[in-house]
Amino acid sequence: MNRHVPLDKECKEFDSYYEMVSNSNIMPGSEIFNTYGETLSNSQLLAQYGFTLDVNENDRICWTSEEVSITFSTGPTGGAHPHPYLPAWEYYLEAVVPRADQSGMYARLSESGLIYCQEDDDNTLCLDSDGRISHQLWTFLALPLCLRADRGNIDNQLGDVTADLKKLLEFQLIVEGADKMNEDQGDNHYLYNSPKMKTMLTTLARSAINLCVSRKCQLGKKGSDDLNEILDVGILPSCGAGYFTY
Questions:
Q1: CA 87 to CA 110: how far, in whole Å?
Q2: DSSP state letters, 144-200
């Protein structure tokens, strides 16, 4: 505090400055560091402190399940209504992700350059600053590709859907180069040459690209002045760059 300012005036100007308090003794001449926090995105840093980082690992773009389903229905140009199967997909997502996690399906995500493991919070359908999609968003995009009407009701399909998701994830890791292909890899070699897996992964990649293109189109609409949305544009190209390879 500025002790040259009268106390009554100082109280009136209280909102114009911060007071920093140390929880430990500080020796004279010691260097003091201030942290801005380890979880702030660029939009939060800009709003609170007036600067951004060139690379910020906390930057994320998030979608709601409705936004994802709209992209399924209409493509990258967007639409007005969620997909009619949205309630079923949301049910599957809540049921399949824990089941897949317990089976160890997501254990190898560290080998992927296009998928990352997102800790559970309010927003899980996300794209990070490296252009990787969360494992929840990947699963949500893959779900419609694994559902089959001939398998019966939702509960009866859980086991089969989880197995198909695991095969698709293994195939993506193979395509990304996480596995070195050779004749001795058995099932992996079979997966790599599976037309079905190639079609499924291509469709999933297109869905991911459509999400990014749709968000980028929204940024150009008049009245879109949300700080988070404005800063989104820096992340979006990295998503397309990764998934366009499929």
A1: 30
A2: HHH--GGG-SHHHHHHHHHHHHHHHHHHHHHHHTSS---GGGTHHHHHHT-HHHHHH
For residue 97, what are the CA distances in angstroms to 2, 46, 48, 73, 196? 55, 34, 35, 23, 22
Written as one string, the DSSP assignment of 199-240 is HHHHHHHHHHHHHHHHHHHHHTSTT---HHHHHHTTTHHHHH
Closest CA to 206 of 242, 161, 168: 242
Q: Which long-range contacts (CB under 8 A, 24 or more apart) does 237-240 make?
A: 237/131, 238/129, 238/130, 238/131, 239/127, 239/131, 239/133, 239/208, 239/209, 239/211, 239/212, 240/131, 240/209, 240/212, 240/213
Cβ neighbours, 10 Å, residue 150: 5
Q: What is the per-residue pLDDT for 2?
A: 44
- Separation between Cα atoms, residue 92 and residue 103, nearest integer Å: 16
What tokens were used for 167? 């095969």
Residue type, 26: I
13-22, 30-39, 87-96 — which is least confidently predicted?
13-22
Instruction: Check if the beta carbon of residue 38 is closer than 8 Å to that of residue 181.
Output: no
User: Average pLDDT, stretch 10-36?
Assistant: 76
Rounded to two decimals, the pTM is 0.73
- According to DSSP, residue 38 is labeled S
